[in-house]
Amino acid sequence: MLIDDVALIGERRAVARRLLATPFVTARTDPEAFALIRAHSDWLTQRFRRVLGYELTVGAEYARLAKAGRVRGTEPARRASGAPFTPRGYAYLALTLAVLADGEDEEVPLDVLAADVRDAAREAGLHADPAGRSAERRAFASALHLLADWGVLAESKGTLAEYAAGEGEEVRLLVDRELAALAVAHPPHAAADPDSFVRDAAPDDFDDDAAGEVALRRLLAEEAVVYREDLPERQRGRLARHQWRAAAELADLLGSETEVRAEGMAVILPDEADGAGELPGPLLPAAGPAAEAALLLVRRLAARIRPENTPAHEAPVPPEVLAEELAAVVGAGSAHRRRWELGAAEYLPDEDALGRRALELLAAAGLLRDRGAADGAEDGGGRVLRAAAARFAPAENRDGV
């Protein structure tokens, strides 16, 4: 294989990984990545459709990867301060997109947009008014900031920061209506209740083998670890039959490596920062104090917790050990917390919130499981360290979990 061919393949796979992690890329927000996506658009479109059943749309100024099925988000949307979106912020995001999708003007006064959002909220039976309390204004401004980051909006007069603070004169925004229509990849459909909406979005099992195999590849690409015991019986059988073909297909698209164990599979993506492979996606490692806390915590737990029978699929984490290690990582007196407080981040959750978020990330990454009483555990529940956590343990402790 020629060196130029290797470089070309590496470039394609790098932008495929970028689209998988960030499905909305515009020429304004990331001109370098967008230029590469445009250059390889035919290859990317064909591979995403065949391997994952995802549709890639590349326009003159944007690229949008529309994912199918239920894709779990790994990080919440963030306000300008770095704090996570509140439910109010998400409500304003949905209402604003609904208003922008129906309009035609390329430039709108922010006060007019706010009034239209208020009217849309009333029509939907919601009590939301951006012109109300200052908290409402800030939540609305957070949604607008996120849309500006996506390239849907741009400031033409005044600033969103001034609007959020209730300062300055009239603020006007430029609107890209085409991007506004693409921001929601799949407009929601009517459903009888929330549970049926989620179930219809991504069924757990498939009668058709071809659809089931594509769904497995999606799961492997999007999740940090796929455990066989977590899959429905038919999907478990398909994974056993097609695991190496799935690994090859994902390697061709993403440049990934695959670990296949008795417990399940993990597709490992290259780390763009230093070339060291870790668990895939933006789950671990990821940016920010919560993700760093999760990584530190799982390393400490994996060094201490050993299964009684080796090898084992999981090992119980005594509550006192978890509390001790959480305090060592996120506690007020820990060196890590002091470092985060001295860092550049404007927002740092308190000790309890940071610990909860770290545990949520570890659960999402398939490294820690909470066996609640509802699961019927004989010991009443508790958390267990799962098999994939072994890769974070010191080298001498990596047998077993």
Specify the number of helices: 15
> End-to-end distance, in Å?
39 Å
Spatial sequence of strands, sheet with the most strands: 1-3-2
> In this structure, how is the largest beta sheet organized?
3 strands, antiparallel
Please tally the β strands and state the result: 12
Question: What does this protein look like?
Answer:
With 401 residues, the chain is mainly alpha-helical. It folds into four domains: 3-66, no CATH class; 87-182, Orthogonal Bundle (Arc Repressor Mutant, subunit A); 203-268; 289-397. Helices cover 48% and strands 11% of the residues. It is built from 15 helices and twelve strands. The chain has helices at residues 3-21, 31-39, 41-52, 87-102, 110-123, 134-150, 160-165, 177-182, 194-201, 209-222, 233-254, 289-304, 319-330, 335-342, 351-364, and strands at 24-26, 55-58, 62-66, 107-109, 153-157, 172-175, 226-227, 257-260, 264-268, 314-316, 368-370, 383-386. The strands form four sheets. It has a three-stranded antiparallel sheet with strand order 1-3-2. A three-stranded antiparallel sheet has the order 4-6-5. Helix 4 (87-102) packs across helix 5 (110-123), helix 4 (87-102) crosses helix 6 (134-150) and helix 12 crosses helix 13 (319-330).
